[in-house]
Amino acid sequence: MNRVVNSMQEKQGVDAGLASKVVNLCQRRGIIFPSCEIYEAHAGFFDYGPLGVQLKRNVENNWWNAFVTSREDVAGIDGAIVSPKALWKASGHLDSFNDPLVECRKCGLRSRADHLVEDELKINVDGLSTAHLQRLIDEHKLKCPKCGGELLPVRAFNLMFKTRVGAAGGEADEAFLRPETAQLIFADYKLVQFVSRKALPFGIAQVGKAFRNEIAPRNFVFRCREFTQMEVEYFVHPAKLDDCPLLSADLLDKKMVFYSQEDQEKNAEPKTLSLREALDRKMIGTRWHAYWLAVCVDWLQSIGLTPSRLRLRQHTREELSHYSSETWDVEYEYPWGWKELMGIANRTDFDLKQHAKASGKELCYYDQAANQKVVPFVIEPSLGVDRLVFTLLLDAFHEKGEGGNARIVLSLSPKIAPVLVSVFPLMKKDGLAEKARDVFLDLKRQGFAAEYDESGSIGRRYARADEAGTPYCVTVDYDSLKDDSVTLRDRDSGKQERLAVKDLPQVLRKKALI
Ligand code: GAP
Questions:
Q1: Ligand 1 within 6 A of CB of 99
Q2: Cα–Cα distance between 246 and 445 in angstroms, integer?
Q3: Could you read off the pLDDT of 77-108 as tens digits, one per residue?
Q4: Tally of CB atoms within 10 A around 13
Q5: How far is the CA of 426 from the centre of ligand 1 (A)?
Q6: Which whole-number Å values give the CA distances from 495 to 121, 472, 501, in the listed order?
Q7: Residue 182 CA: which ligand 1 atom is closest?
Q8: Neighbouring residues of 472: CB distance < 8 A, sequence distance ≥ 6
Q9: Ligand 1 in reach of 387 Cβ (< 6 A)
Q10: Does ligand 1 have an atom closer than 6 angstroms to the CB of 383?
Q11: Cis ω for the linkage preceding 238 (within 30 of 0)
């Protein structure tokens, strides 16, 4: 087992310490692990086991509920994964969706230029251009990290996976696995707007797989080659980007840490400001963009991420994607530094205009009041589920006790924990197991994510539940047989309370806010 974990960490480039411990736990409990482990598979692909898939699904469902079901202005789609070359030519991905690649002249090792510079010089390289990276490599005479050989000049490497559709095999059959879910939303924009009868402003959301042929997948599922994205493309009238009725006083008063383009250029520190102050200082270009920044940070906190480990960093001018006029990343303080957890971009009218031009189809919106056609602007909150799941695990991971007595506790929010409640009989004998199974099956029937565990001492069962992130444990003991009561233990406080079996569902719902 250790060999597998060590080699995985080597292969995925995971830092020592907290990240290693979480990766180790994921492997040992089968939460997330490298795909196809019985073969020598490519790095950057992962499978989710029983606990992992439930955690991931809970996160997706919570997001879908917050960003789609509970809102009247967002509709959902589920687009295809394989799409024609024409789509990716028009979106700009064929020409611009590149990472900077350096290759060793001697051993042929290929590395990501920005990662190489970051690792060797221990500096933050976010936002540096290819020319800037080349300058740093030349100035510091950086060499191949494997054999010390000369490096060839930095060049662009396109990240899309190419495939062919059908048997003919001509150029017209070339297709690509989508590197972002967003483009299907733009391609479907007209139809979805029509069938959902949405007026501007409105959003189209999607949760689905994306694929990127990353040069160097690393840090476990933080950067992988196959991952799931949750994206909203929010369409706003181009003349009404500052007309945001949803920007409530609560959101405007929300304090967050902002690291603006200007402060990064001046080497100044990030600032803690309310959203209102950030808008007054003209840090954020439009009020609709400001609204989505606050909504996203709010949601990330609502599912358990520690507020002080989140900040908003604006992309520098050099760093902006080809489609964006302004992007803010929600960054998390990872063991390997502040890095992007999600991005919130102003994509302007770039995508709709590009697809209209390339397809010859009109992709606009008829503004009845003004009796004119407009091309909406788009604000896009975009988030990787796998990266978020890993972040939630890192955030929730604690060790209680010391040395040989140290126990792992995953303090996952009850809103996303894969198992909400574990049910134990104190002993297997004297009818306790039968009684505990009745309690367990009744909880299952009522839709609770419950588990039954009768093996090992009670202490071991608590420990097993704690490291799976299970918030509540129910123990059936001899008193239960007399008065139909059980003990409910809270993972985080360790407190135990006695309650009637009939009250259990109601108490659990209240505690877990579900
Ligand atoms: N539609 C915009 C877009 O795709 P992005 O910043 O390239 O923007 C959005 O990706 C989010 O997708 C990231 O913030 C991250 O959460 C996730 N993501 C991107 N590349 C990833 C990778 N290789 N592995 C895991 N998650 C990734």
A1: no
A2: 39
A3: 999 999 999 999 999 999 999 999 999 999 99
A4: 18
A5: 46
A6: 49, 10, 18
A7: 1
A8: 414, 420, 421, 422, 488, 489, 490, 491, 508, 511, 512
A9: yes
A10: yes
A11: no
